[in-house]
Amino acid sequence: MTIKCSGHTLFPTGECKITGIVKLPLANRGIPPNSANRLAAQFFGFGIQGLDPSTGAPLGGNNVPGRMGIPGFNLHGFTGGKTVTNANGMRTTTYTRPQRSTAISNPVPPKPTKRQVLRPLECTYEELFHGCEKDVEWDAYENKQQLTKIFTVDVKPGWMVGQKIEVEDGNDDVTIIVTETPHDIFKRKKDDLYYTTDITLQQALCSGEIIIPTIVKDKNLKLQFGGTISSGHEHEIPGHGMPIVDTNNRGKLIVTFNVQLPNKLSKDQRERIGEILKE
Q1: Are 33 and 88 found together in one domain?
Q2: Measured CA angle at 128 (ends 127, 134), to 5 deg
Q3: 103 belongs to a structural domain
Q4: Per-residue pLDDT tens for 33-62?
Q5: What are the distances in angstroms from CA 74 to CA 5, 60, 63?
Q6: Do 85 and 15 sit in the same domain of this protein?
Q7: Contacts of residue 260, Cβ cutoff 8 Å, sequence gap at least 6
Q8: How many CB atoms sit inside 10 A of residue 208's CB?
Q9: Under a CB-based contact definition with an 8 Å cutoff, are residues 79 and 63 in contact?
Q10: Is residue 106 part of a domain?
């Protein structure tokens, strides 16, 4: 009896064929049926009692280890068991294990998380009034090298505090936020400018004229007022505030009066003022 096993492995990744070729009958050749086991043991070191002498097929099912006389060999997962007899009476039984895919799944790597960069853009009132171009810098990393990136912002007339500019640059998402440099004499609320001026008690009681500065350099306004003005009174001047974005209009300039009282009065001045106020 001859046993052939071509290309077998314990954990095959391709097709493995186990072929048993049996010449029958053994008794007609003058060899006792059980001599095959002794011959196999002599030449191969193990017996073949696990083969059916009539078909060459393994006995005991596919899940029993060592049933083909090969210690530790397991037919689990094999299919087939097809037996073919050739013209010389030799039978070949073939068992095939389905091919396993060796391809390794390559999942798409997750998209790298972009770095969030926050940068302020500090502007003066004059820059926000007229508009300008300003550079913003931040540190970036490319090819393991640190770089300084510069982005030029086109500041529009009328932009307010909190205006955001979003910039996408490589692995960086940059958010630029407008801030304001405090002004020496003006305060801003949305599109309006506020200015506080001092007037004397005489001006507050007797009317007068004062000069009011504007956000435009070297351009002042003359403000005349009559009647009496109390401290904290506000006077609105339309069209002299900040520009309104994407329009030709401007907000208001709001003037607040702060009446200054004299530090001291003489006895005669107090008496005269008292007489006037009685009327």
Answers
A1: yes
A2: 55
A3: no
A4: 555 555 555 554 444 455 555 555 555 444
A5: 14, 11, 6
A6: yes
A7: 198, 199, 200, 201
A8: 15
A9: no
A10: no
